[in-house]
Structure prediction request, 186 residues.
Amino acid sequence: MGHGGNVIDELMADHREVEEMFARVQAMTGTGQELRDLIDEITIELVRHSVAEEQYLYPAVREHVEGGGPMADKEIEDHGRVEKLLKRLEKMSTDDAQMSPLLQQLMEEVSAHVQDEERNLFPMLRRACTPQQLDDLGDKIRRAKAMAPTRPHPAAPSSPAASKILAPGAGLVDRARDFVTGRGKS
Prediction:
C-alpha cells in the first residue's frame, strides 16, 4: 500500500499487487489457514483500493474526462459486484465447495475491471489532466487508502461525499478488529 507517484502509477502498482496475489491463489494446492490468510490479504487490498478510487478517482473522471459520468458509474457498479463477492468469501469456509468457483469469479471480475481502467479510463484521464493534477490525485489516493476500511461493506453508500465521511470510521473499526484477530498480518 502506498507506492508513490501520480494517481495512475499508484493504482497500476495496486493492480500488479493484486494480480500477484491472484497468481499465488492459482498456484496454491491446499485450503485451510494459508488460503484464508491470502483471501484476507486480497480483500484488504481490494477494499482499500476501491474506496480510494470512489473517493477521488471517479469524481476526477466525472470532472475532467468528456463523458466521464457514465464511465465512473460503470466502474462503481464493478466495485459493487466485487464487494459482494468479497463479503461472501469472508463468511465462507476455505473447504466449502463454492470457494473455488467464487474465487475464480472474483479474479475474473477484478481482471476485467483492471483491463478496462488501464486500457480506457487511465489514458483518457492522463490526456485530460495536468501532471500536477495527477500527482495531487496520487497523494489523495494514498491518504484515502491509509484510512480506508479493510473489510467489505457492500451496503455502505458509494458516493464520494458519504464515503469520505463514513470510510475513516469504518476503517478504524476494521483495523481494530484486524489487530485483535491478527488478520492481515501474514
Notes: The mean pLDDT is 85. Helices lie at 7-27, 32-64, 68-91, 99-128, 131-147, 160-181.
